[in-house]
Structure formats: C-alpha cells, structure tokens
Amino acid sequence: MLEALRxxxxxxxxxxxxxxxxxxxxxxxxxxSRPDGLVVIKPSGxxxxxxxxxxxxxxxxxxxxxxxxxxPSTDLETHLALxxxxxxxxxxxxxxxRHATAWAQACREIPCFGTTHADYFHGPIPVxxxxxxxxxxxxxxxxxxxxxxxxxxxxxxxxxxxVLVAGHAPFCWGKSVADAAHAAVIVEELAAMAWQTLAxxxxxxxISEALRDxxxxxxxxxxxxxxxx
Length: 229
Fold this sequence. Notes:
Blueprint: H1 3-18, E1 28-33, E2 38-41, E3 57-60, E4 65-67, H2 76-85, E5 91-94, H3 98-105, H4 115-118, H5 133-137, H6 140-151, E6 162-164, E7 170-174, H7 177-200, H8 209-219
Antiparallel strand pairs: 1-2, 1-5, 2-3, 3-4, 5-7, 6-7
Helix pairs in contact: 1-7, 2-6, 3-7
C-alpha cells in the first residue's frame, strides 16, 4: 500500500540527515495521501542508517495504524493535527536543528530581516505559546499540533511553512514531504542568519513590507515570476 509515498517519506527523512538537521534518532518526516486519508511516517526510535521504505508506518487521520509492524513516531498526533487543519499541505518535517531549536527554546519568533527570509516566509516565523501543565500531561503531542495551529492564525500555511514550538523545536510543512524537508533546511539557515544578524547589529529591524512583499510574491501566488513557466 502507498509504495511510492513510502519511498518519498524515506527519502525526506534521509535528506534531513544529509543536511545535518538531525542526529541519532531525532526528528521525523511524514507524507499524506489525501485520496486515501492515510499518512506515512517514520517509525519511532529506529536509527536512520537502518530505516527502509518497508519500515514506514501507515496510519489513518485518527491515528490508527493500518499497516506496519513498528511503532510510528511519537509525534504522529502532531502531524495529524496539521494535516487536519491545513488541507493544502502534503508533508510535515520535524527536526531539532541547532539554530532553529535555539530560537524555539528562547520562545522567540524569527524576524524577517532580509530578502532571503522573504523568499520563503511572508513575515516572521511564528513561535507558539508555551503549553500549559494540563496540555502537557494529557494529549501532549496532539496539543502541540493545536498550539501550532493557533500560532498560524492569520497565516496561510504555504506562505508560512513552519512554526517554532516554544521550548521544543521547529515543525515544517509543504505541498509534499520533499517540500517539507526543504522547508526544514531553509528554516535552519534563516535561524542561523537571524542570530548572526543580531550578533552584528543588536538593533537590526525587519525589512520593509514593500521589500518583503516584492520578494515573497516573486516566488509565490498567482503573479509569481520566479523560475520557468
């Protein structure tokens, strides 16, 4: 079942490793088949160098495993909350990459300091509010997803393809699982750039809305001009 998607999810997980965004068994990526209502996700705690496409776990949107002999990632419920909330996305990637995680631990959004950031995000990368003790103790992973959804209010999911979870790390997404992994790479780069920008100039301010919009909408939306038709 869903053999092509299994392969795509495996490749996205391995891309996170190749790009240095995960170590040991940190992180996970998943993809969804919307027609089937099924999600393919990395198994929990299996070293990346040992994972095969056949190891991927398939679950429905209620979290019931329908295929696979291994436990799914412990973050499955977070992924499912995002798939339910954002019908336009086809993949989710979660890492503990160093710079993006540092911003999450600081509970700080990442400002849009330059055009590189604006090419991918139409504004800052949001950060969630901290979870309450009750949210942590009961339904932690699902509540993490709901916190991300709340942080995305006012944002289109493809114009803001990531959120930092306060005290935790980034979750990223895209039209496909490959796009989600790509977004995770970009988020880490933007996090490092923003940190270095503030190190050089602690008083640095975000770029103007005009410059942000010019760069963002060259790549996104109906009037995009970037790339080939």
